[in-house]
Protein 1
Amino acid sequence: YPERHRDTWYNRAVRCFSLQRNVLFVLDPKHSTGTVPCLHGIRVFSMAWIILGHTYLWPQFVGCANLREMSKMTSQFSFQVVLNSTFSVDSFFVLSGMLVMFWTLRRVDSDGGSISLVRFYAHRFLRLTPAYMFVLMLWTNLVQYWIQVPAWKSNMEDHRVCDSYWWTNILYINNFYPPYLTGSCLGWTWYLALDMQFYVISPMVIMVAYRFGSRGLSIIIGVLMCSSLLATALVVHFSNFQIDGSLLLINDIFTDQSLYNGPSRTSTSNTYNSSVFDKPYCRIAPYLVGLCIGFMVRRLPTVSTTSFSKAPARWFALLGWAVALILLVSPIYGLYGTYHREDQLSNLATVFYYTFSRLSWALGVGWLILACFAGYGGYINSFFSHGIWLPLSRLTFSAYLVHPIILYLLFLGLEMPVYYTNVS
């Protein structure tokens, strides 16, 4: 063919399906210039944490042979990481907000201070939706034929839900309708709906930051953050959510009884899921932290690693890491004592934990990103920035979409209920 016909839009579209081209791209360990390499390691470990939590959650769909012993496992110190695996999602919110601010500011700078909203939204929709809808098609039409066990009919309702509610997924409103998380299509994709909703409002924050700098960003982030924290506190307070050490986990979806008996309008954890867990006005705090980190990474010059040797910088970095460690550990192990007591936490303590735990985690992750970028990461930055994480990082979106289906097929194919232990 003539040279002028070799790089048409059609040829570029076809090359997107080239196995050789995609494999070479995915396996390329080289970081692109102008990026923050530590994000890849954070992304990989966050996804591994999600899969770990789901691996312990999914067997409950087919029954647990030692539920009482499992409830005792939740009181173990080491098991807190599994119970609180949902904080890994907040890491992704931080990363998403940071990257949206970073790359959009870069685009706005090059375009002379303007942003094309059509291109902005179309880019996001076209980037996520094709793979998302392909997995939805598999789940709705094909997965049900891949397994033939009695447990399928009694426990596998989600693929039939998609016949009625698939359109909520393509519109990214499946965290609002249907009203209960356990009754939605591809229930684990509530995160994509939230992330898209945060993305929709992000240009407002980005343009304020571009035109008014750090002062304008502080004001708009402060208003949104306070509104979100206040909304969360009010919902938790008036819904009278409780954290009881005698239960497996009320504060997240781990022990939602609807997993056994279908969606229940009276389930405490189901009420929490539909009121707080998947609602943007209660979950936007980590995304806002990410927007701030993205602004700082874009606007602040890179600090040489040799500056760590200077006393003021060294002490500032050490203090930052100490505070970040506290912020990261507190949400994970802060409730450990409640699993060894029969009484419930007070309403005030419950409201405080629900309101600030995810913000605490997001601030810790935010410091990790900022410190690694500024040259204060040391061995931590070297570990998370290693080239080995880059190929795995490129696969995290697909892993997020597909791994629950693999877990479904694995556990629903078992002929006997799962027997929980610390290692299986």
Note: The CA atoms of residues 117 and 123 lie 10 Å apart.
Protein 2
Amino acid sequence: MCDPDAPRSFLVCYDGSAESLHALQHACDLSKPQDKLSIMHVSSTALPQEKQDELKAAAEKELESAGQSFGGGKEYYFEVNDHPGQWLSTQCRLLSIDYCIIGCRGLSGLKKTVLGSVSESVVHHAPCPVLIVRGTCNPATV
């Protein structure tokens, strides 16, 4: 049986969207102070340092408002990759992530067929449990 007090590691996929903010909020709700958080942003083009700083500041603001300190540490990753679902799944394996939390935009039909679904790819390939957070956060809490 697992030790309920043992530190856990969470990977949150974060791109600044309302859906990813909602995923980050869920990570805060599910985590304990000793847990570790890896916040990852994957895009097909390189982000300028200014944009990376903006995303990091927005995530930090959300973590601060949630009152979560992550004593196990916080790490930010910004990756350029044309296959984000595969890259995120690989990171889950390499970093021994316990739980992956990802938002979902709810694409359907032709858009999903053409664009694919990052969350669907992660669910199928990640070696850990994956929580897909649907919808967006309550604007009153942001």
Note: Strands lie at 9-13, 36-43, 74-80, 99-104, 130-134.
